[in-house]
Specification:
468 residues, mainly alpha, 21 helices, 6% strand, extended
């Protein structure tokens, strides 16, 4: 701006008024010049003519208006987030979300059952293997420098002190769990100086086996073998049972945690035994820790390797099966491999592992779990991770995997295999690759006649006991 000059300028006697701001604007100045009658016409600059209102489109006018409002009133920026959100909502309303992006999930190594693919890859190599090494000819060689293995169980010869009371246990589970329970019961009874009552076998809804101790094991031999270490009786005396109205449910029952230490029995069970003179432990499977003093371990070994002998009917048929198996293994000098597969339906169901049976397998396993362990696997809060179970190596080996393992150990197609196991789950499908790898495979049903097996059909545990 030019200040108002009160002093006369040179050549002028009167002061000049300041020029109007409008006249100093280039746009207005060019317009006024063009409208004046005389003088040369000044051509407007292209910089300004392109923005003339008459030449703008509707979009340009709208953008110009919004920009001018924003520049004049900066408070409008407070509404910018709302405008952004409104724009995003408008945009999202025009996009379809029916198609979900495909995100590929790569399972962890070892979490899936892929043995069939491995078998298909290795089969040509196994069929073309012409190596002369035969594992069955070397596996029986004794590698012990002392010449032979000798039992290390030292039997007692002295008498036993007065008993502290009677111990009654219920062996639950399958055949292996029952045998372990018996060995643990002998160890606990000997450690507590208790009299062991012949173990009672718990009737389970899965195996539905009514067999008693004497049906599977030689009871007389069991009592005699332990005579110098643990007292064993077949029944509780009447003067003891009279106190409990001859009802075992009235006897104090310990609910002991799995894998309890032997010190727990000394500190907790023994005082009650001395007080009651008869205690009951049910269930008893896996109720003693493997980590035990040498004296306890000795009693375990004594029960397992010396005292427990199968009953005469089982031993007799077992010897017959062994003789027939040797005859069918003449090409290997009567030598054969015995394999105990643990791929029965209950084993697969309890493991919660997933194989390659698809939806049918899932239905079978869900039904088996509910039938055998009602609610155990479906209770709220229980999370089952089949992939993690497989990575940790807790899935039962399929017949195919057992066959691959044996072939990897050097056993070829000429090896005779005796298969000792229960009914294999989905046997037709799972046994096919094992029979391809070992065509000389035999089972008890192949070696024995139906008449010979008939006496054992009412108890699956006795049938499983047939030696291999």
């Amino acid at each position: 701006m030019h200040a108002y000059n009160r002093l006369p300028s040179s050549g002028h006697s009167s002061p000049s008024t300041p020029s109007s701001p409008r006249s100093r604007s280039p746009r207005l100045r060019s317009t006024s010049n063009s409208n004046s009658g005389g003088g040369s016409r000044v051509k407007p600059s292209a910089r300004f003519t392109s923005g003339q209102p008459g030449q703008r489109t509707l979009a340009h006018r709208l953008a110009w208006f919004i920009l001018s409002v924003l520049l004049r009133r900066q408070g409008i920026f407070l509404f910018a987030p709302l405008l952004y959100i409104a724009g995003m909502l408008f945009y999202m309303g025009t996009v379809s979300f029916d198609v979900v992006p495909n995100i590929r999930h790569h399972p962890a190594p070892g979490s899936l059952y892929r043995s069939p693919q491995l078998y298909a890859k290795l089969l040509p190599e196994m069929d073309s293997d012409n190596s002369t090494a035969h594992a069955i000819s070397t596996i029986w060689k004794n590698s012990y420098r002392g010449g032979e293995w000798r039992p290390c169980i030292n039997k007692s010869s002295g008498g036993l002190p007065e008993s502290n009371g009677y111990l009654y246990i219920e062996a639950n589970g399958g055949l292996n769990q029952q045998r372990t329970s018996i060995c643990n019961a002998v160890s606990v009874a000997g450690y507590l100086n208790a009299t062991l009552v012949i173990p009672h076998f718990h009737f389970h809804s899965i195996w539905r086996d009514p067999s008693k101790f004497g049906d599977i094991y030689d009871e007389e031999f069991f009592v005699k073998s332990l005579a110098n270490d643990v007292r064993v009786v077949d029944k509780i005396p009447d003067y003891i049972m009279e106190r409990f109205d001859y009802n075992m449910s009235n006897v104090y029952n310990f609910r002991i945690k799995a894998w309890s230490s032997i010190s727990y029995y000394r500190d907790t069970v023994l005082p009650k035994l001395l007080e009651e003179k008869l205690i009951r432990i049910s269930p008893f499977a896996n109720r003693l820790s493997f980590d035990a003093p040498p004296a306890v371990q000795r009693l375990r070994c004594l029960a397992n390797y010396e005292a427990l002998r199968f009953s005469n009917p089982i031993l007799s048929l077992g010897e017959t099966l062994v003789a027939r198996m040797k005859e069918r293994s003449a090409n290997n000098s009567g030598k054969y491999i015995s394999v105990h597969l643990r791929f029965e339906e209950d084993m697969v169901a309890f493991s919660c592992c997933i194989y390659d049976g698809g939806e049918e397998e899932k239905r079978d396993m869900d039904a088996a779990r509910e039938r055998g362990w009602k609610g155990k696997f479906t209770k709220p809060g229980r999370v089952i991770r089949p992939g993690a179970i497989r990575i940790n190596g807790k899935c039962p080996l399929t017949p195919l995997e057992v066959g691959l393992m044996l072939r990897g150990m050097g056993f070829d197609k000429t090896t005779s295999i005796y298969l000792a196991s229960g009914k294999i789950y989905d046997s037709e499908r799972h046994m096919k690759p094992l029979l391809e790898m070992f065509p000389l495979l035999q089972t008890k049903d192949m070696l024995a006649t139906p008449e010979e097996l008939a006496p054992f059909q009412d108890g699956c545990h006795r049938l499983y006991c047939l030696p291999s």
